[in-house]
Amino acid sequence: MKKNLALLVLSCALSIGTTQAQVVIGQCAPLTGSLAKTGEAMAQGVRIAVEAANAAGGINGQKIKLVQKDDGYDTAKTVSCTQELVDKEKAVALIGYAGTGNIAELLKRNVLGSAGIPLVAPYTGGAALREPFNPWIFHIRAGYDDETRTMVDQFVSTGVKRIAVFYQNDAFGQSGLAGVEKALAPHDIKLVSRGSYEKNTEDVGKAVDDILKGNPQAVIMIAITRPAALFVKQMIERSPGLQVFAISVVSGEDIYRIAGESAARGVGITQVMPSPFSGTQKVVREYQDALKTHAPGQPPSYASFEEYIGARVLISALKRAGGAATRASLIKALESTTADISGFKVAFGPQQRAGSKFVDVTMIGAGGKHLR
What we know:
By secondary structure, the chain is an alpha/beta fold. About 45% of the residues lie in helices and about 15% in strands. The strands form 3 sheets. It has a 7-stranded mixed sheet with strand order 7-6-8-9-10-13-14, with helices on both faces. A 5-stranded parallel sheet has the order 2-1-3-4-5, with helices on both faces. It is globular, with a radius of gyration of 22 Å.
């Protein structure tokens, strides 16, 4: 009896030791709902980076425990999901959230501040998450202002001045809309028309009608993939030859699949990451290898690649934070980051949370491929 009790105590002790020899990071992502396909790719990118790190021995003698939850792109669920990760799971960091409005609500309720927890690599470039400065969110992507300025400058340089905006009617879309208007101001140009749709819906017909009233030469889309694709399909049917650009949160392959080749070909998309399809950069080759090993059969995508890089940035900071990283020590490690993630550079500072300004421009070509 005593021997069995001793074995039981030893077993419990080993179990506690195993649990303690983990560092927990958490992710709330839209795994269901209107952004599900993007959310699944985001979750996959984080997971393969974590699994690759654990397969290589973990960090500072610890394995990473990744807890991923579904918020359905719903703001209230984002808040409750985050509270669970902070309070129940005792996560030391959060990673890879989606939705400007969703994350803004975390700031409004001081969820991140009261927990003193960093959020790394949110899948949004919304200005409201960057200005005014907050110390909790570490961005690895350029902002929507950077993307919309790139689009506007390209249009104006080719003589296109009659520009409209199609946007999601929430904090995300309004941030992008404001970015377009800010980029137009130095050129003394105003929008000729605008049209919107409601979050978590796909009713874009009125937006098409509203935008066509302005007789635009080009439309900038601040929208997620499915509404953007349906908008492109309807708009090009009614206005062939119209130039359409989208910001980086859309999937070109899915726009092609939903809108069809005749409508989708030629749609421009700004990108905040290098191409995940080309193996010319070391980080891309490492990402593709991680996909083959930890998600065999899954194709590369911009969304999963972005969150793979985000997880690599977080893992690098965890290593520098020491063997028993706390939320506070991790924030110090993150804000002292000047990292070269196998060719992709990210730099933060005590008053600097925008780690990258990289913006590229691609175009949807035959078969939905991204052309540069």
